[in-house]
Design goal:
Layout (H helix, E strand, L loop, with lengths): L11 H23 L6 H66 L5 H7 L3 H71 L4 H21 L10 H11 L18 H11 L8 H4 L4 E3 L9 E4 L4 E7 L2 E4 L8 E4 L6 E6 L1
Antiparallel strand pairs: 1-6, 2-3, 2-6, 3-4, 4-5
Length: about 350
Amino acid sequence: MASHRRPKQPSRARVTVLTATAAAAVALTSQAAHADPKPTKSEVKAKVDKLYHEAEKATEKYNGAKEQQQKLEKQVGALQDKVARGQQELNTLRSGLGSLAAAQYRSGGIDPSVQLFLASDPDTFLDEASALDQLTAKQTESLEKIQEKQRALAQQRKEAQDKLGDLADVRKTLGENKKKSQGKLAEAQRLLNTLTAAERAKMAQDEQRASRAAGDRVELGNEAPASALGAAALQAASTRVGKPYVRSATGPNAFDCSGLTQWAYAQAGANITRTTYTQINQGTRIARSALKPGDLVFFSNTQHVGLYAGNNTVLHAPYPGAYVRYESMNTIGSYQAAVRI
């Protein structure tokens, strides 16, 4: 006889697991359907360019702190040498004072009237007493010199200590700006890594080709240069077209923006400072309408600098990933100021 058994019902726990799994699958499908699409190459480039500009700002601040650090280190070294020399002079003065004290001790240290009473030869005693007075005067003079040297030494030590404090602050700023710049560059690299290797290579080739071609296409006109110096600096910079932007580089085969302007003027025989923040205070401020080839032009809150090349164009090192090139001032950023070296 056939057996008629009721089919076994699934347990409640099993039903719960199956339901949860199905719900999760539906949720994942829904999320995938609504996920942000992968950014296009042009979108990635726009974001990367923005990050590069922000990294350049931090780099200029880093360069400024580095320059300040080097100056402070020289000042601290000079003050420490001065303190060491002062201490040596003080030790010499103290040694001389000890010799005078020993001479007094050898004279007996007895009251002069008693010494005169005991002396067998008053004339000899009077000669010795005169010598003793001279010793006392020298001792007083030595004490005054020691006190003066001690005061000077204390002041020099305080100056050195203050400079060391300044140096510690600058080193902290240096580290912060280096970290900030590296963070922006790392973020840009993460974005670039969302592209394929072929897309990244194509972007780099396009950037370099555009930079080199800019020199052939640019129409600079026939504007007279700011000066023979400005003309020479601009000519030197023009030989660097196509060289890569590298953070904190000062040439001759790679540059950041202020590294290029400093290098160009050095080739022309003029030493200018290292950063945008200090270069803007050199030379004579001029109006935008008075710009001439060779003038320095500053953009975006003194974050960027280039050499005016004529016809509203600058020659500059744009940002990481780019190359030295000519570019319209209208495409670089907000114009701030110009100076003539």
